[in-house]
Write a structure and sequence with these properties.
Helices cover 5% and strands 65% of the residues. By secondary structure, it is mainly beta. It has a 31-stranded mixed sheet that branches. It is globular and about 105 Å long. 25% of the residues are buried.
């Protein structure tokens, strides 16, 4: 009997034993759902709460329950339908699928609870639901309404007067992080929030060990866009000569991202710009940067008669628990045709040269980059491998009518370049006091170029002895091979919670070998004469930069003071080997003071050293064009610049105003210059030499005030440069000044027409040898857009420019667009330059010449386009 009672008690105790059940929240695409609230109650009494928990980043959660007891769990999430399920422990489903909530109530809650702008530490966040309207198609349309943010025509972005170096989506670089490709291609309606991070750091180990001063944009997608494929496709034409074929596909899953962009057009739309190639250099390495792509440029339809662009881009990202792989591929084929008339005046003797020229340029570029970032609590590793092949082929023909005579000139150039670059870097957390970063980078580059120049008489008199001829040809061939390697290490030693010592060492070696040949042939009285010149040389450079810095960081202030010892040895061997070696001490200092989240004061001082390139060391004569040659100097040492930067910003967007002032002053006590030989009329011969002094000052000040839906402000710029230049064996002082004042006004109404108006006045002066040359410029940019009816949209814009009171540009565009009821298709009619005369005037001015240029630009275009969104 006692045994039976004991067995019954044991059985009842086992059935009531406490256990832990686990499950996870997922959407219809089996993507994990984080931040879901799970309330567990007894099934027979839902007022009796057993436990409340929240799902983690991977959607998982666990609950302590008792075996064989029935429970009910209620699941709530802002973006999904409330869900209730019952189960008998331990039989809880391993995956719980939630349905997306498309009810309008979600938007109302977000609109009234979440503020438009949040400022926390280094991050300013904008709730985009307060800015977006149905007319916005791409990110660029949306960014035009963000207060304090400036968009330049080349796609570069500025906030607080500082450039935004990269653009991220969900914390990861979008196609390498370029801003132009991001603002032109990311759909506006896919975005929920925009974050501007002013001191971005990928490394968690080093986050508080230094200031990066890198400013980035991070875009947060709407939840429903994170698990689906979306994008758009477009076809447009005028049914005669102009066309555009475009497609984009995006898939931003947490562990797998696939993005594709295709753009083929001749409307003057460049897919990639300079800032995109600059961003591709950055791979979140503390010590290294990838090399710059030489083809990076931004071509405007206000300068060229014809622009064709073919671009195919693909990004694949694979993310594991600790490792992140990113594959980037781009192929670009770019063609331009420039036709221009120029009136060039030589300031030293009032000689003139009026020319008509045609230039065609074809650029082809293949770029491959793979990066891997491994991150754990005590170790971070960066691996990057880049491959780039590009080709440039150009043809220029020029007809010249100068103060000497009439002549013609023809030049062709065909250049191939191959670069492969790899780096490996690791950061280790040794203990609570020491962090160390170390790595290696190596690159191989090969350049092969062919150039052909031809002209008739009066070419480079007294420089090329056989100048007096009927016709001549110069055929140039150059092969350049370069190898570079760099070893670097940084040690961060924590003295206290707020102060650190930073010890750094960077050592690099470069070997350049150049084989060049120049074939010169001339025809004199029907007699052909020829001569071959060869210039083969090697250039080897070794540098060692070792530094010690003290870094102090507390809540409101960052201070960095330190110095480095810099040594280099630069040898150039062309028949005779010449070596220049030098060592120096370079101090630096930085102060950042943030009294609150709105105000920031920053001061920086540093010294900068730049070594001469092998082109500047080469003593062989190089023909630049029909009136100029250049010659290097093997005795060049280095430049030495002192750079002072002072910046203040008061970004009080919560109280509707912002002010930023960015100022820099640079003293160049040793630099590179060219000795200019102007003895002959219409001839500029340049010889590289060391310059003794120069001064540069730049100031950029911006004020913005926001009154509900209206924003207005002013931008004031001033630039002053003073240089000592060598003219005919004597030094002269050249001073240039630029003043610019630019007020602007823009509105962000949702039910009324919106205006965007900016006006700019600028004055440019150049003083040299007691002569002053001045030209003034004025410009007006105006845009208005509005929804006429629910599905119809119109936009008109004008860009009007005058130089010295002469109209030089009158670019007017008009767009009419119809959107279907499902908002899946746009039909648009776009008129580009519809009142333009087909020309554009510009003025270029330097120390010796003033050039007035008249460009033939792309003609009027009336384009019918169809765009489909999915």
């Amino acid at each position: 009997m006692l045994r039976l009672i004991f067995f019954i008690l044991l059985l009842s105790n086992v059935s009531g034993a406490q256990i832990t059940v686990k499950s996870g929240l997922f959407d219809s695409n089996l993507q994990p759902i984080s931040q879901g609230v799970i309330k567990c109650t007894l099934a027979k009494d839902t007022t009796s709460i057993v436990n409340i928990t929240i799902s983690s980043f991977d959607g998982k959660f666990s609950l302590p329950v008792k075996k064989d007891i029935s429970y009910a769990i209620a699941i709530k999430h802002l973006s999904y339908v409330d869900t209730v399920i019952t189960f008998k422990a331990p039989f809880l489903p391993s995956k719980i699928i939630l349905s997306e909530d498309y009810d309008e109530l979600s938007e109302i809650v977000i609109k009234h609870i979440k503020p438009k702008i949040e400022i926390k530490s280094d991050t300013t966040s904008f709730n985009l639901s307060n800015y977006i309207d149905p007319n916005d198609r791409k990110l660029k349309d949306l960014l035009e309404k963000i207060p304090g943010l400036t968009i330049n025509p080349d796609g570069s972005l500025y906030f607080k007067g500082q450039i935004i170096s990269r653009l991220f989506v969900e914390g990861e670089p979008f196609f390498g992080g370029g801003t132009k490709i991001g603002i032109d291609n990311i759909p506006a309606d896919a975005l929920k929030k925009l974050e501007i991070i002013s001191n971005y750091s990928k490394s968690k180990i080093l986050k508080n060990d230094r200031r990066t001063n890198e400013q980035v944009i991070n875009l947060i997608l709407k939840n429903k866009k994170k698990a689906i494929v979306f994008g758009d496709a477009e076809i447009a034409t005028d049914f005669t000569a102009f066309y555009k074929l475009y497609a984009s596909l995006f898939n931003f899953k947490i562990k797998k991202q696939n993005n594709i962009i295709i753009n083929n057009n001749n409307l003057g739309i460049s897919t990639l710009g300079y800032n995109d190639y600059s961003a591709m250099r950055i791979v979140d390495s503390e010590l290294f940067r990838l090399p710059q792509n030489n083809l990076s440029s931004f071509d405007s339809d206000q300068e060229f008669l014809e622009i064709k662009d073919q671009s195919y881009l693909m990004q694949l990202r694979r993310k594991a628990k600790k490792s992140d792989w990113d594959f980037l591929f781009s192929y670009n084929d770019h063609f331009t045709l420039k036709k221009e008339e120029s009136n060039l005046t030589f300031l030293n003797n009032n000689g003139f040269d009026n020319t008509n020229s045609n230039t065609t340029t074809k650029l082809s570029d293949i770029y491959l980059r793979t990066t891997n970032y491994l991150q754990s609590e005590n170790k971070e590793r960066v691996f990057a491998l880049m491959f780039n092949f590009n080709n440039e082929n150009s043809l220029n023909t020029t007809l010249s009518n100068s103060s000497i005579t009439s002549r013609d000139y023809k030049a062709t150039n065909d250049r191939n370049q191959f670069i492969i670059n790899g780096l490996l870097e690791q950061t280790d957390k040794i203990n609570s006091k020491i962090n160390i970063t170390y790595g290696i980078q190596s690159s191989i580059e090969k350049r092969d170029s062919n150039g052909l120049l031809g002209s008739n008489e009066f070419f480079l008199e007294d420089v090329i002895s056989w100048q007096q001829s009927d016709d001549f040809i110069i055929d140039k061939r150059l092969i350049k091979n370069q190898f570079k390697t760099k070893l670097a290490v940084n040690v961060f030693y924590h003295l206290t919670d707020y102060s650190k010592l930073i010890i750094g060492s960077s050592n690099s070696f470069s070997h350049i070998k150049v084989d060049s040949e120049q074939f010169q042939a001339l025809e004199l009285n029907d007699i052909l004469l020829d001569q071959v010149f060869q210039s083969n040389y090697t250039n080897e450079t070794y540098t060692s930069d070792n530094g010690l810095s003290y870094f102090y960081k507390k809540s409101k202030i960052d201070v960095l003071v330190g110095f480095s010892t810099f040594f280099y040895s630069n040898s150039f061997d062309r028949d005779v080997k010449n070596t220049v070696s030098k060592g120096m001490i370079l101090p630096k200092a930085e102060l950042v003071y943030n009294p609150n989240t709105k105000n920031e004061f920053q001061f920086k001082y540093r010294q900068q050293i730049r070594l001469p390139s092998d082109d500047q060391l080469d003593t062989s004569l190089r023909v630049q064009n029909y009136y100029s040659i250049t010659q290097g100097d093997t005795n060049l040492s280095n430049t030495h610049n002192h750079i002072f930067q002072l910046r203040y910003s008061n970004i009080n967007l919560l109280k509707s105003y912002s002010f930023s002032s960015n100022n820099s002053y640079e003293i160049e006590d040793q630099g590179f210059n060219t000795k200019i030989d102007l003895e002959e009329i219409n001839q500029i011969n340049q010889y590289f030499l060391q310059r003794n002094s120069a001064r540069y000052f730049n100031s950029n000040n911006n004020f913005t005030y926001i009154l509900d839906k209206v924003e207005f402000g002013n931008n004031i710029k001033f630039r002053w440069n003073e240089r000592n230049i060598s003219i005919n064996d004597r030094f002269s002082k050249a001073i240039s000044r630029t003043y610019q004042y630019s007020p602007y006004l823009r509105t962000t109404f949702k039910s009324f027409p919106n205006f965007n108006l900016s006006v700019a006045w600028s004055k440019n002066t150049l003083e040299i040898e007691n002569e002053t040359n001045i030209f003034n410029a004025r410009s007006v940019n105006f845009k208005v857009d509005h929804n006429l009816l629910k599905h119809y949209y119109v936009k008109y814009s004008i860009n009007y420019v005058t130089l010295d009171s002469r109209k030089t540009l009158n670019n007017q565009n008009f767009e009419f667009r119809y959107t279907n009821k499902l908002k899946t298709m746009d039909i648009s009619l776009l008129a580009i330059n519809f009142l333009q005369s087909g020309t554009n005037n510009r003025i270029l001015q330097d120390s010796f010449t003033r050039t007035e240029i008249l460009n033939n630009i792309m003609p009027r275009r009336l384009i019918l386009g169809i765009k489909y969104f999915f």
